[in-house]
Amino acid sequence: LVSRENHPERSTVHVGGVPIGPGTVTLIAGPCAVETREQTLEAARMAQAAGATLLRGGAYKPRTSPYAFQGLGEQGLRILAEVREETGLPIVTEVVDAHDVPLVASYADMLQVGTRNAQNFGLLQAVGAAGRPVLLKRGMSATMEEWLMAAEYIAQRGNLDVVLCERGIRTFETATRNTLDVAAVPVAQRLSHLPVIVDPSHSGGRRDLVLPLSRAAIAAGADGIIIDVHPRPEQALCDGPQALVDTDLGELAQVMRDFPPLL
Ligand code: PEP
């Protein structure tokens, strides 16, 4: 269903009216985690000023440590809905458990499946049946075949509104959090008709790498990028070191203008 063999035209997925697909480079930005209403609204305004047309933000956080901030849950979803009301930005947010899919889908414009759940087949089937577009991160150790088969699980439930997201893979290199597989963009676009975007924030794990990796992603033909921003990253409850701050946003807007989308 997701293969380009039977569907040669590349697809566009619409999220609350915002297109992700060929001919555009969509910027999705916002806080890694929803912490407070004020922080989320500030981050959303920063994102919008940089040209973002979709707001990201996690209410359910899949953390390596069970002692780390796990997200605000439904309260976080309510904050996201309020911020959507104020800014007009449709919401992209992660769901980590199949049982939560109906609840998260009742607030979200797009459901995100994170790298740690990229082969959680029950969750993939549940989001496939939820009636919302899905942002499917690549598993951190997933081959192209495994990634596309994960998308196939969603599509099989009748949902072809799936956007693939390369977010860095595990390699021997420890200087960066993950290794951005730039080649995954054109390879996935050749194998699948689905749009392919890149997460430079979770790939590098460092603020200073976000803009160079964004340039690389767009130059490789990505249909969009998804970026963490935070008004006060030193106080962030999740992934502060990779969040862009106010002073980075002019340059991010320039990156978006510099590269005309590849057709
Ligand atoms: C995220 O985008 O908030 C996230 C946790 O990303 P990943 O699943 O790619 O680590």
Automatic annotation (TrEMBL):
GO terms for molecular function: 3-deoxy-7-phosphoheptulonate synthase activity. Keywords: Transferase. It comes from the Bacteria. The keyword Magnesium does not apply. Residues 17-257 form the DAHP synthetase I/KDSA domain. Its EC number is 2.5.1.54. This is 3-deoxy-7-phosphoheptulonate synthase. The lineage of its organism: Bacteria, Bacillati, Actinomycetota, Actinomycetes, Streptosporangiales.
